[in-house]
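QA checklist item 7 of 12: single-chain prediction sanity check.
[x] sequence parsed
[x] length recorded as 276
[x] structure emitted
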Amino acid sequence: MISRKRLVVNADDFGFTPDVNRGIVAAHREGILTASTLMANGDAFDDAVRLARDTPTLDVGCHLVLISGRSLLPPFARLPASVPALLGALVTGRIRVYDELAAQVRKILAAGLRPTHLDTHKHTHLAPPVLDAVARLAEEFEIRWVRRPFDIPLTAARGGGVWKRATSGSLQALRGRFHRVLARHGCRTTDHFAGFQLTGRFRAPELAQLIRDLPEGVTEFMCHPGYCGDELRGARTRLKESRERELEALVAPEVRAALTEAGVESVNYRALEGGL
């Protein structure tokens, strides 16, 4: 019998640094992580590909990047450094969104991986031009699962600060067009999404509570585990020590126990695609 509550625990930033890669694999092998999305332009892409091949039970998707790092298109210039900079580039036509993202998908495929899902760094597919490109790619490459980045208002997710709650709430206004575009291209999403309000600030008790509060249906929980080694400390990201705290939560016995107590089935996108 299929559980009425299913959870995909998905780690962003696979390929960012080697210590992030190691943390993601540890969260899968020792904890409740079931999936991750790979950055084709990440400095540790090759290392992530090697780990993915060595860990076939880890479901791998594409973490499509339009902010930070280098483009995969000649002349291989740097991508916009922030969301406002990206929005400016979109308005002025200074970025070839579809071509850039298609190059990223093709690089992952060329590495011999078969991605099962798509999401974007900093949720940039909330911007209509990016969403249109992502949905087109999902259809063309038959990668049907696309992240719906609209947080559910769980008790455990509250308390992320006024700004995060306001941002999460404002995203709801984009939902109508978002789902129409995905439907037009035959894309699928989970029923629910969580993690935005908890990014960088949850520990085992908050994660266990979130699991106990899950609604019926399939939920994706976004996370950012990793080890905070020298590579990560030197990288341009605000998520450093918090990645180790997230890793500790993902492997905590009380979190695994919460899955059992709440009757939540742990799944990945490959299993969902197979109709499980």
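[x] summary fact logged: Residues 155-160 have pLDDT under 50 and may be disordered.
[ ] second reviewer sign-off
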